[in-house]
Amino acid sequence: MKGTDVKLVIQKTLYKSDTLKTQNRLNMPFNQLETNKFLTEDERQIVESDVPKENNIEVSLLGPTLEMYKLKMELTMWPMLSTYNYVLKTNWYQFWFDNKQHLKEGSKIQVWSFRRDQQLCFAIVCVE
Question: Do residues 59 and 122 make contact, with C-beta atoms less than 8 angstroms apart?
């Protein structure tokens, strides 16, 4: 992939809400992150923006089969009651559906960030 700047962002269990079509997102709560140092300063300003529809970064996603997924995702930040969350959205449900033989409710996954030609990408890895 010729990826650079590889960082473990989070290790988490997939919950039912991460697999629902009506939710269409992967939640990554700040209080569970391994690092929050995977964004550039410009990217951080975008996702922290208070302007809806302008606080998304388009990202590519490497799936558990080690292939780049054909559809792009968006990364954004959502405030919650007790913490903030980074959220992968837009096409998440389709990604999950296409990989559901690997990504089951209750599965433990890792989300890694990396750069490919300076563009932010993520990889989803299943943990045994």
Answer: yes
The CA–CA distances, whole Å, from 90 to 57, 86, 128 equal 11, 13, 27
What are the tens digits of pLDDT across the range 45-84?
Answer: 999 887 767 789 999 999 998 899 999 999 999 888 888 9
pTM as predicted: 0.91
Pairing verdict, β 25-29 and 108-116: unpaired
Q: Identify the CATH class of 4-127.
A: mainly beta
**Please, where are the H alpha helices in 48-114?**
92-98
**In Å, how far from its chain's centre is CA 104?**
16
Local structure of 113: helix, strand or coil: strand
Q: Helix, strand or coil for residue 93? A: helix
- The string over 108-120, giving b where at least 16 C-beta atoms fall within 10 Å of a residue's C-beta and e elsewhere, is ebebbbbbeeeeb
Report residue 4: phi and psi, to 5°. Answer: -130, 170
Q: Which residue type does 53 have?
A: K
